[in-house]
Structure formats: structure tokens, C-alpha cells
Design a protein that fits this description.
30% helix; alpha/beta
């Protein structure tokens, strides 16, 4: 499917004179790029009037790329429907929960559930697929661009009709919906599915189960939109299909990529931890398809007219590319190649300026080309080895925590703070989703995961029984699938497995709740879950407060089979509100002795292991920080990139420095 290693940038031939386009392609080739992404915003160029398609510019560009032995990724431009499509059609535009109906302009201004829009998207996909039959250098089609990047759910009348159909299919009986949602609260009972409101703005807040269901509905229908386009293309052309998603968007990514061939993502983060989370998550979305493409990132800094962003430190971008390729990434692409001369994203970094000269990101782009020239063969003949630690990142958990946020919580930030321990301590960990296999793991972490489904819990228990350690929490396992309390025990079936008694849950926002963990005084924050007892468990942490929950256990472990379940009932912080969750993680990392034999890494030095066709281990080492750090080699090795020999013992890595060693 993705047989080469791809490096490139987004190209916009519809915006520039032909001589400029040719110059850009030549410059891309010169600095080591081999791939251009084209067409995600070009609907009005390629179909200026209904059913009048003109792919001349695209044809010329693809032929020029072909002359240079370069690849292309083509996109469907459904994020930016043209004015001729939107002008005369009622009930097409996206509507917010406050009843605001968008007008034409910007992007994502149309409701993707509108039948006429869906039909026109299908027609465009058909025409593009027919056109692409003649071009072997087109390696993939990207659907749309960043689903839900700027909008949340749509609340138009068309969505309301689809919502009622979805509810009937999901619940079948209106009384079942009433029961699961507890609609007797505030007299919210319904007698038919077509009475169920869509959660537009109301006087206070909507029933939380209603809100969660509408999120699932929105996810399902955007995934259906993607599947519809993909199926249309596949009927005409057998070409790999993807989409460029992101942590930032409100999507069900696992469901989205079930219907696509490989995963792509965009990221414009500016911290090492946030970037490593991306490279740790997206390879694990599709079972047995770890190959993925980073479709968009910046050469130097992102930004737009309302937000100037800081410049990446020297070496940061090269380290990003190194990590992407080491983590089974098959492609690393910048946005854009040539700086936009108009529109709202003019202050966004690029490879060359709108007048064609090198930008401050040019050198990094050139350095990546040189890196690939030295490592491409190694990448093509090896595969990444998964770490033995995984943290679960769940779009469902994200929805739960962000809806019940207590006025302060944010799922992505909470996960980033949690994952920060691994990056800053040079400990490799993956981000898994709820459907991932745990076969290769020794340590499984499920923080901030309010609902733990039966299927996930059963697989996690099997993992524990075979000898794994499962860290549950903080703020995990305490809600049903409809985001409600359990009524038998505070933790449902999980509570019965742990034999908890006397469970209490209470918020600790702006309240000093002292606790003890292994003799150390700590503080509990956010929502605290504590118990008076858990038969057969070893208590590790108790509340040490005269006023709230004195003596209750918030942290305990229980032997299950050959392994352990560790329940963590609160966010742990110090007196300055700095996270101390790492204290629990560190305890079990040390207990499992999860260290590489040939290479020992220091703070912020990460070892991405790969195995080649002969079983030989490669160590892709990077110091992903702005400070010097150390690593230790257990024997003499040679850095493949520089050709420099490194003796046995300790070595110092400068900021963002990377190496490839063969064990």
C-alpha cells in the first residue's frame, strides 16, 4: 500500500502561475522531497460550475511531478464547497447549537448530512477517481480536510430528522431510551423518537445522556460521510484512501478509520510530549496497519491572522521527522510549501515565502531530506517494535470528561500531563485505543476514563490474569455507557471485582485534601473516589485529612491471577498543584524493570526500537528536549547517520540530537 518513504509538502497549483508551480516542484526535488499533496481546497477551480469539470491544472501538475519522479496525494475538497453549490439550496448550511446559521465563506460551512451536498460530494469523488486512473504516481486519496476542525455538531433541521432515525435504530424502543437516560428527571420523558430534542442551547444544561448520544450520532454520521466517499472512489479506482485527522477535533477516530485504508494526521503542537503522543497514538488506530502519514505540520511555526505562534527551537522539526519515521510513519509532509499570499493563514510558516525565497524553515526542510538519504533503506527494511507500556487515549473518554468537566478539566491536557512522565524520563510508551490488543504489554494505564465498557474490562482482566499490571484512574470506571452513576456499586462490575466497600466520591476543587502515599504527603485534586475497604487488596494510599474522608483508601492494588489491578482514585498533586501521578506510574515501571538491554536512556532521550528483516535491532535515539541529556551504550556501536563510532558507556546528547545505532 505505502511501499516507499514519503517526504513533501502541500502544493497549491490553483493559486499560482504555471512557472511558479514548476519552480516549486523543482525546489521540492532539490531538497529531497518526493511527495506533493494537492487539491483539498480546489473545488471551485476543478468544478467552476455544476457538472463542468476542468482538471487541466491538476493534469499539468501531475505530469510535472511525474517528470521529476515524484508522488502525489490527491484530496477531495469537500471542506470548501463553492458558492454555486451553496447559494440556492435551503437547509444546507451548518447551524450551531445557538441557532446561528453559517453563510458561505471560510470552510466547513456546510452540513455534511445534507442530501444534496452528499450527492455533489459523491459526484466529485467519481470524477476525480476517473481522472486519476491515468496517473500511477498518485499514491493515495485524502478525503476532505480535517473533519470538524472548526465546528462542533450541526443542529439544522436535516440533522434533526437524521437524529430521530439514528435514535430509533440505536434504542429501538422509546421506553428503553427513557430508562437509560433517566428522563423522569425534570419531566423529560418522551413518548416517541421524533419528540426527542436536539441539544440546542437551553435555559441551563441538557440531560447529560442526551448530550452524549448526540455526540455519538454526530461521530457516526461523519464516519458515514467518509465511508460514502471512500466507497464511491473504490468502485472506480483501487487506490488507498485516508483522512488527515487530529487530537484536536471532535471525532470517533477508531470508527472513522475502520472504513479507510491507512491513518493520516495533522499536528501543530509545540511541546515534545504533545508530539510524541501523536507518534504513539496514530500507528495504533488500525489493527495490523501501523503505516501512517503525518500529513501536515509546520516547518517553523503555525499561525493565522488572529494568532501568531512561537517559532520551534532549532532542531525541533528535524527531531519531529526522525520520530515520525522511527514510529512507523511512512510520510512526513509540511503545510504549505509556498507561503499563502492571501487568505487568513498568511502568517503561517512554510518552506519558501510567497515571493519564492527560503524562509526560516527552509534549512530544517533541507536537513530532513539529508536525514532520509541516509536512513531510507533502513526504514524500508525494518519495522517498529511496540513498547511494553500503553496509555489508553479514548475519544469516548474525551467526550465524557469534557462534558463533565467541573468547570476546569480538559481531557487532552490531562492526558498530556499524564504522558509527560514517560517523555521526560526517557521511557517509551504507546497510546492505545479501546479496541487495541494488549498482547505485547506489561503495563496498561487507563487514566480519566469514566466509562470502562464490558468488552474492554474483560480484555484488560485477561491481560492482568496473564501477569500484566493495570493502572485504573484517576477518575476512571465510575459511569455507565450513558454517562450515569451505577446503582449497584459505585464502580459497577469493576467494583465487584475489586470488592470495594463504603465507596464515596466528592470534588476537591479548591479544597485541601491531604493524603499519604508510601510515607509522602500529597494532595488530592478534581473528583476523588475513595473506599472504606476492598477485601483482599493492599492499601497504598489513604486520605490524611481531619475534615474530609479521614482514613479512606484512594489508592490500592489487588492481585488478580498472575498480575495486579491498581486503583487510583484521585489526581495526585503537590502543594503547588504540580502533578504527582508519575509517582504511581514510576513505582510499577520500576517493579517491572522495563529497560532496554543495549541502550539505557536518560531524561528526555527516547529509544525507538526497530527490527530489520534479519531480526537485528535498530535503536533510533533522540534527545527530544532543549537541554543536554545522557544515554548509556552497553557496547561499542556506530551511529549510522554520522558514521561516528561510540564507545561503551555514557554519552551526552545535545538538544534535539538524534542517532541510529545497530545492536
Amino acid at each position: 500500500m505505502l511501499r516507499d518513504i514519503y517526504y513533501g509538502a502541500a502544493l497549491y497549483p490553483e493559486l499560482w502561475k504555471w512557472e511558479t508551480v514548476k519552480k516549486d516542484i523543482s525546489e521540492m526535488k532539490k531538497i529531497g522531497m518526493n511527495t506533493a499533496r494537492i487539491g483539498e481546497f480546489a473545488w471551485s477551480t476543478f468544478e467552476p460550475k455544476k457538472d463542468q469539470f476542468d482538471f487541466t491544472i491538476l493534469e499539468d501538475t501531475l505530469k510535472e511531478l511525474e517528470k521529476q519522479n515524484m508522488y502525489a496525494i490527491l484530496c477531495t475538497p469537500t471542506m470548501t464547497p463553492p458558492i454555486w453549490l451553496t447559494a440556492g439550496e435551503t437547509n444546507m448550511m451548518h447551524q450551531t447549537n445557538e441557532g446561528l446559521t453559517f453563510i458561505h465563506g471560510a470552510r466547513q460551512h456546510v452540513c455534511t448530512n445534507n442530501p444534496f451536498f452528499r450527492d455533489r460530494a459523491r459526484v466529485y469523488a467519481e470524477k476525480l477517481a476517473e481522472f486519476l486512473k491515468d496517473y500511477d504516481n498518485v499514491i493515495a486519496v485524502q478525503l476532505d480536510n480535517e473533519f470538524k476542525a472548526h465546528v462542533g455538531p450541526c443542529y439544522c433541521n436535516n440533522c434533526k430528522n437524521e437524529w430521530h432515525k439514528w435514535l430509533e435504530k440505536e434504542y429501538q424502543d422509546i421506553q428503553l431510551l427513557n430508562e437509560k437516560w433517566t428522563t423522569k428527571i425534570w419531566s423529560q420523558e418522551y413518548t416517541s423518537f421524533d419528540q426527542v430534542v436536539i441539544p440546542k442551547k437551553t435555559a441551563f444544561l441538557h440531560n447529560l445522556s442526551l448530550e452524549e448520544a448526540y455526540t455519538r450520532f454526530t461521530h457516526d454520521l461523519i464516519n458515514d460521510f467518509a465511508k460514502d466517499q471512500a466507497d464511491t472512489i473504490r468502485q472506480i479506482l483501487p487506490i488507498p484512501i485516508t483522512h488527515n485527522s487530529s487530537f484536536a477535533f471532535d471525532l470517533d477516530n477508531v470508527g472513522l478509520f475502520e472504513n479507510l485504508d491507512f491513518v493520516s494526521f495533522d499536528t501543530y503542537v509545540d511541546t515534545p510530549t504533545a508530539f510524541v503522543m501523536n507518534s504513539s497514538y496514530w500507528p495504533n488506530i488500525k489493527k495490523d496497519v501501523a503505516a501512517h502519514i503525518l500529513m501536515e505540520t509546520s516547518t517553523s511555526y503555525p499561525g493565522h491572522i488572529k494568532e501568531y505562534r512561537k517559532i520551534h527551537p532549532k532542531g525541533f522539526v528535524e527531531a519531529e521527522s526522525f520520530i515520525t519515521y522511527a514510529s512507523e510513519g511512512k510520510g512526513f509532509l509540511f503545510w504549505p510549501f509556498r507561503q499563502q499570499k492571501g487568505g487568513i493563514e498568511q502568517p503561517h510558516g512554510s518552506v519558501v515565502s510567497s515571493w519564492g525565497e527560503p524562509t526560516i524553515g527552509y534549512q530544517a526542510s533541507q536537513n530532513i531530506g539529508e536525514l532520509l538519504s541516509k536512513t531510507k533503506d533502513l526504514l524500508l527494511k525494518s519495522r517498529a517494535i511496540q513498547p511494553e507500556i500503553a496509555v489508553i487515549y479514548s475519544d469516548r473518554a474525551k467526550s465524557f470528561l469534557n462534558k463533565e468537566n467541573g468547570g476546569a478539566l480538559d481531557y487532552r491536557k490531562a492526558l498530556t500531563d499524564y504522558f509527560d512522565y514517560f517523555v521526560k524520563n526517557g521511557q517509551r510508551a504507546s497510546l492505545y485505543n479501546e479496541k487495541s490488543s494488549f498482547d505485547q504489554l506489561k503495563l496498561l494505564c487507563t487514566p480519566f476514563m469514566h466509562h470502562i465498557s464490558d468488552s474492554f474490562r474483560n480484555r484488560a482482566l485477561e491481560f492482568v490474569e496473564k501477569g500484566g499490571i493495570w493502572l485504573i484512574g484517576p477518575m476512571s470506571g465510575d459511569r455507565t455507557e450513558e454517562h450515569q452513576w451505577y446503582t449497584d456499586t459505585g464502580l459497577g462490575k469493576l467494583g465487584r471485582i475489586l470488592n470495594v466497600e463504603g465507596m464515596m466520591q466528592f470534588p476537591s476543587m479548591e479544597t485541601e485534601i491531604k493524603a499519604k502515599f508510601e510515607g509522602q504527603t500529597i494532595f488530592l485534586r478534581n473528583m476523588v473516589t475513595a473506599v472504606s475497604g476492598a477485601a483482599g487488596a493492599k492499601v497504598l494510599g489513604k486520605i490524611d485529612s481531619d475534615e474530609f474522608g479521614e482514613g479512606l483508601a484512594f489508592l490500592f492494588e489487588k492481585q488478580v491471577g498472575k498480575g495486579k489491578i491498581v486503583f487510583i482514585g484521585a489526581d495526585l498533586v503537590d502543594a503547588e498543584e504540580q502533578s504527582l501521578n508519575h509517582l504511581v506510574i514510576q513505582k510499577y515501571v520500576e517493579e517491572l524493570s522495563l529497560k532496554h538491554e543495549a541502550v539505557q536512556t536518560g531524561a528526555s532521550v527516547l529509544d525507538f526500537e526497530r527490527r530489520d528483516e534479519d531480526g537485528t535491532i535498530q535503536h533510533w535515539l533522540v534527545n527530544f528536549s532543549g537541554e543536554e541529556s545522557n544515554f548509556v551504550l552497553e557496547k561499542e556501536m556506530v551511529d549510522i547517520i554520522s558514521g561516528q563510532p561510540f564507545g561503551k558507556g555514557k554519552h551526552t546528547a545535545s538538544p534535539y540530537k538524534y542517532y541510529v545505532f545497530i545492536d
